[in-house]
């Protein structure tokens, strides 16, 4: 699973080009300005790809171009996260041009004009084109939309025309990447021997009895580990401890919270607004004009907060209600009565038994039978919510199947929507509902209604005054000035118990957040600055609603792995080695049956039995999935016993009592296809990593942004 996660994280670099242009086709922008040669001093080099240095000014120019186009088209500048995404897109395009591009050129790969036309308006439409030219009424791709767009192309604004050109370029790059990956993917082959090995691992079985002494049965306090032992272990297991450049910090937070004076002033303001709202001639306009958070005047039950919803029955037109508190936001409402809507709103829960529309008839039949069985149990008195948690196959299962509120406006698939809105009142639908997703058991928890409520809402968020912010800043600044060393920093923490200190451990250089701190790039950049050393104390940083003063407590370097980088893990491993030696030595002097050995050994020794163990998915009772022990069980002849040996979590003596070889099989196609599918999942990741390694990619962006 860890490998698959890593693949998903990293294999998107090659595909990123199409996402860039897809976004900018909608918002406009000219990302790609071609290749050039980059030279500059090391302090001005944002990275290096394929021997070509990328100067910061050139990189920033491309970022600025996209940012400008984004701002023009969206009407606002990108936020910090969007800006980070733009930088990633520009960097990934450099990789595509300078690293992948050389590979394509060497192999003579290209995309012809006819091929591009086929992807846009031919018979093999690219998925990204399908996505953007989908008919909203039918939900289906409409080639006519594409043709109409291209006919009107010359009348579009220049920025939009350029965006389309870039989008088409990204389609070509994506096709090139696909061709390249397919060439390499088709060069892999699963042999009969490999398929037979997988088949055997999944189907051959053994039964075993074993004595198990877990490491935790030996108290850690009895095992002493020296630094030299840790050094020796690290030296002989370097492949297990890959270095990473990180920083660890301690930081003190000075929260900016409203003072008593701020709170009193806020309440007076709320009271004043309530009085003015009561007599306002245009209450909805007055509420909108005086709200920090705008809410609609006409609201369905789905849009009304729970606290307010509970008071609706007692509200009279023209009345003022509240304030209602939600976090730091207080709301007052003027009730204006009700209105009937053309749409209905309902709240429902469901239990989905998955059966995709392309599933086989036998799969669908089994799913339907299971759904009908669950429905029968609920009709018999079983809890719907408990059954949803136990049997639901989608993301609502853990919430008891709750789908929340929804309207009959196409937000749900048609069969489901028809069934729910065709039901009157609340309760369990008598029959299962079939959709393209499978079979649903449905419960209406709040009856459908087309009532809308007129609520003029003033939502005000209490915030600290400028004088309060200034006072908190003064305290933070005084702390930073008075504690410029590690000793002073930590002494102040011991002296003043009101100070809140937190730790950020092993923060990577490119991190933009850590712990619960978002938008923390300025703190991370400071910690990684060449002039910042371990023991240095920072200036005052503002992070959202708090000021922060940080102390660098540690650093690691990917090129220089030290014991302290992995002290805790190394210590645990060495302790396990020492415990294994101690346990094996004690067991070696004992003879008899496993039960007799366990009795003579004393506390901690367990004798257990495991049946039908497989190499692929073998699990032992107390020891879990211990590969060393399971491998030993398969390696022993029936009736034979092993000597004491170290496993993952303890020491074993293993006896194999039964062996069932894998039955002969004539057709290994299933296992070959499984191996082929696994290889296909890894292909993009491995290709990307190999290309980056070959291009000697050096990414210094974290030092600049």
Describe the protein.
The structure is a single chain. The relative contact order is 0.14. Strands 5, 6, 7, 8, 9, 10 and 11 form a seven-stranded antiparallel β-sheet that branches. A four-stranded antiparallel β-sheet has the order 15-3-17-16, sandwiched between helices. By secondary structure, the chain is α+β, with helices and mostly antiparallel strands. The protein is built from 23 helices and 18 strands. Its main location: membrane. Keywords: Cell inner membrane, Cell membrane, Chaperone, Isomerase, Membrane, Rotamase, Transmembrane, Transmembrane helix.
List its salient traits.
single chain; 705 residues; alpha+beta; seven-stranded antiparallel β-sheet; four-stranded antiparallel β-sheet; 23 helices; 18 strands; 44% helix; 21% strand; globular; disordered N terminus; chaperone
């Amino acid at each position: 699973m860890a490998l698959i996660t890593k693949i998903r994280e990293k294999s998107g670099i090659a595909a990123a080009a199409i996402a860039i242009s897809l976004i900018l086709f909608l918002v406009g922008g000219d990302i790609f300005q071609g290749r050039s040669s980059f030279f500059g001093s090391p302090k001005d080099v944002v990275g290096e790809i394929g021997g070509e240095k990328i100067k910061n000014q050139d990189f920033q120019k491309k970022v600025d171009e996209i940012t400008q186009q984004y701002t023009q088209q969206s009407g606002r500048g990108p936020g910090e996260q969007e800006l980070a995404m733009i930088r990633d897109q520009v960097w990934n395009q450099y990789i595509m041009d300078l690293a992948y591009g050389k590979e394509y050129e060497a192999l003579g790969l290209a995309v012809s004009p006819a091929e591009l036309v086929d992807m846009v308006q031919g018979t093999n439409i690219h998925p990204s084109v399908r996505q953007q030219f989908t008919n909203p009424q039918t939900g289906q791709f409409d080639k006519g939309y594409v043709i109409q767009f291209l006919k009107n192309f010359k009348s579009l604004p220049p920025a939009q025309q350029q965006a389309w050109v870039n989008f088409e370029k990204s389609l070509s790059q994506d096709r090139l990447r696909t061709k390249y990956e397919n060439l390499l993917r088709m060069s892999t082959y699963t042999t009969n021997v490999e398929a037979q090995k997988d088949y055997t691992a999944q189907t051959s079985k053994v039964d075993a009895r074993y004595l198990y002494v877990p490491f935790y049965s030996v108290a850690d306090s009895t095992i002493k580990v020296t630094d030299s032992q840790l050094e020796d272990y690290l030296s002989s297991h370097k492949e297990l401890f890959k270095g990473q450049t990180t920083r660890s910090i301690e930081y003190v937070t000075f929260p900016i919270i409203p003072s008593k004076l701020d709170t009193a002033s806020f309440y007076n303001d709320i009271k004043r607004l309530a009085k003015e709202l009561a007599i306002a001639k245009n209450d909805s306009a007055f509420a909108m004009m005086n709200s920090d958070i705008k809410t609609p005047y006409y609201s369905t039950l789905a849009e009304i907060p729970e606290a307010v919803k509970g008071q609706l029955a007692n509200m009279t037109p023209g009345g003022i209600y509240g304030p209602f508190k939600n976090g730091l936001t207080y709301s007052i409402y003027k009730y204006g009565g009700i209105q009937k809507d053309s749409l209905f709103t309902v709240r429902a829960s469901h239990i989905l038994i998955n059966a995709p529309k392309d599933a086989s008839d036998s799969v669908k039949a089994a799913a339907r039978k299971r759904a009908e069985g669950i429905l029968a149990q609920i009709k018999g008195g079983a809890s719907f919510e408990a059954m949803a948690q136990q049997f639901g196959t989608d993301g609502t299962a853990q919430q008891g199947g709750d789908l929340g509120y929804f309207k009959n406006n196409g937000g749900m698939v048609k069969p489901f929507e028809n069934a729910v809105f065709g039901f009157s009142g609340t309760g369990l639908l008598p029959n299962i509902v079939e959709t393209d997703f499978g079979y649903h058991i449905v419960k209406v928890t709040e009856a459908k209604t087309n009532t809308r409520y007129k609520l003029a809402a003033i939502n005000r968020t209490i915030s600290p005054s400028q004088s309060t912010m200034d006072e908190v800043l003064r305290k933070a600044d005084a702390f930073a000035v008075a504690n410029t060393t590690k000793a002073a920093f930590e002494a102040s923490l011991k002296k003043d118990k009101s100070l809140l200190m937190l730790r950020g451990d092993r923060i990577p250089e490119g991190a933009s957040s850590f712990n619960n701190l978002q938008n923390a790039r300025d703190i991370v950049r400071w910690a990684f600055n060449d002039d910042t050393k371990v023991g240095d104390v920072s200036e005052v940083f503002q992070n959202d609603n708090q000021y922060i003063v940080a102390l660098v407590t540690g650093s690691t370097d990917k090129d220089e792995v030290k014991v302290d980088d992995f002290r805790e893990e190394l210590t645990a491993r060495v302790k396990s080695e020492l415990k294994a030696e101690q346990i094996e030595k004690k067991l070696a002097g004992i003879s008899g049956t496993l039960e007799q050995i366990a009795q003579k050994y004393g506390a901690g020794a367990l004798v257990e039995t495991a049946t039908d163990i497989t190499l692929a998915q073998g699990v032992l009772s107390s020891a879990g999935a211990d590969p060393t022990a399971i491998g030993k069980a398969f390696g022993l002849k029936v009736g034979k016993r092993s000597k004491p040996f170290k496993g993952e979590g303890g020491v074993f003596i293993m006896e194999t009592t039964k062996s069932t070889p894998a039955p002969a099989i004539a057709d290994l196609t299933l296992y070959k296809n499984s191996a082929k599918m696994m290889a296909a999942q890894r292909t993009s990741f491995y290709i990307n990593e190999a290309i980056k390694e070959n291009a000697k990619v050096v990414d210094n962006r974290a030092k600049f942004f």
